[in-house]
Amino acid sequence: MMERIERIQNMERSLDASRLAVDRLAEALEAYESVQKELKILSDYYGSSLWREDFEADERGEIPADLKRGVLSEDAVYNLLTDDHELGLRMMKISARTLEG
Predict the structure, then answer these.
(1) What's the gap between Cα 26 and its chain centre?
(2) Which of 4, 18, 35, 61 is 20 to 30 Å from 86 at the Cα level?
(3) Mean pLDDT of 83-88
(4) Are 60 and 54 in contact (CB under 8 A)?
(5) Full-prediction pTM beyond 0.70?
(6) How far, CA to CA in Å, does 17 sit from each of 30, 36, 58, 94?
(7) DSSP states of the chain as a string?
(8) Other C-beta atoms lying within 10 Å of the C-beta of residue 77
């Protein structure tokens, strides 16, 4: 009897932890999906001559010093796009395992 109670308690903890994680992932995926258009716009800009022109203007001091301009750093956008790609691969692997059962 004690073994059964312990098993049920363990399964209940698994249910609670899993429900919380699935709900949080669903929320995160909604937020992630909502910025996909922005990521595409950012990616297109980063690979364009406009970005290069803006970057060079900043290098020449033509951009106000108090203007937030992390997008003109050479690493911020690249790192974001790389992280996004790696996250996509990770989601594919997790999805494949999940669908396999």
Answers:
(1) 13
(2) 18
(3) 96
(4) no
(5) yes
(6) 20, 29, 48, 18
(7) -HHHHHHHHHHHHHHHHHHHHHHHHHHHHHHHHHTHHHHHHHHHHHTSHHHHHHHHHHHTT-S-TTS--GGGSTTHHHHHHHHHHHHHHHHHHHHHHHHH-
(8) 19
Compute the distance between CA of residue 15 and CA of residue 9 in angstroms, rounded to an integer. Answer: 10
Q: 49 is written with which tokens?
A: 């001559």
Opening angle at CA 37, ends 42 and 27, nearest 5: 115
Give pLDDT tens digits for 14-55.
999 999 999 999 999 999 999 999 999 999 999 999 999 999
Which residue in this structure is represented by tokens 């249910």?
A: 15
CB 81 within 8 A of CB 39: yes
- What's the distance, CA 84 to chain centroid? 5
What is the CB-side half-sphere exposure of residue 30 using CA atoms within 13 A?
A: 6
